[in-house]
Amino acid sequence: GAGEDAAVYAEWGSDDTYGQRVLLGSGSEGAGVLVGLHPNETAHWRVATDADASADATVEAGSAPVDLPELSISNVGESTGGLVLTSTLDGVEGYAVAYDHAGYPVWWVASGEEGPFTDVYPSPDGRGVIYQTTDPKLLEDIATVTFRAWNGEVLSTTRTPNGHHDFVVLPDGSYGFCMIDVREVEFDGEAVERRGCAAARQR
């Protein structure tokens, strides 16, 4: 029974004392995605206002893929929040994965048929992650930048022709990326093909 302007929160934790709280919206409007549970962990959660709360509920996180690498994180100081985003590359497959400061994987997506990921960054608006798919062997031009929400939904895909190992989100929302530049040059009187990296931009 939240009032029209009452702040609505999600609360969660390892037991029914919760300990974590995030604003969802106001009144009857609001939604969120819970990211940060450890694999196979059972979390307690509820929706609350400053004056009332729903009944306690539980949710169990799934198992992490067995081929995700272990990660040891150090020098985080007093910080307890935030995530470490990275990509893994094993042959032609891999993951975009987020680890918490204890080294637990708390969010991941497999490359599958998309192709391997070379870089992954948080989106500037905090709604998810942005990663690049490319062929590290340069046999196919499959380079694409994907914006994926924390709930797994693909929000956008942008082709980055001949894109390779790195990209950046520019202030206007476009992408700057390294593009493979193939040129024919003369060397010792013979024409030879040389590959380099050029800067490019794509919206």
Q: Your description of this structure?
A:
There is one protein chain. The chain has no helices and 14 strands. The chain has 203 residues and is mainly beta.
* Helix fraction bin: under 10%
Count of individual beta strands: 14
The low-pLDDT segments are none
Quick check: average pLDDT? 83
Radius of gyration: 22 Å
How many helices does DSSP assign? 0
Cα shape: elongated
Query: What fraction of residues sit in β-strands?
Result: over 45%
Please outline the major beta sheet.
Answer: 4 strands, antiparallel
Q: Between the first and last Cα atoms, what is the distance in angstroms?
A: 44 Å
Structural class: mainly beta
Spatial order of the strands in the main sheet? Answer: 2-1-3-4
In N-to-C order, the SSE pattern is EEEEEEEEEEEEEE
List keywords for this structure.
four-stranded antiparallel sheet, mainly beta, elongated, 14 strands, single chain, 203 residues, 50% strand
Characterize this entry briefly.
This protein has 203 residues and is mostly beta strands. It is 0% helix and 50% strand.
Topology, element by element:
Elements: E1 7-13, E2 20-26, E3 42-48, E4 57-60, E5 84-90, E6 93-99, E7 105-110, E8 117-122, E9 128-133, E10 144-149, E11 154-159, E12 163-169, E13 175-187, E14 190-202
Antiparallel strand pairs: 1-2, 1-3, 3-4, 5-6, 6-7, 8-9, 9-10, 10-11, 12-13, 13-14
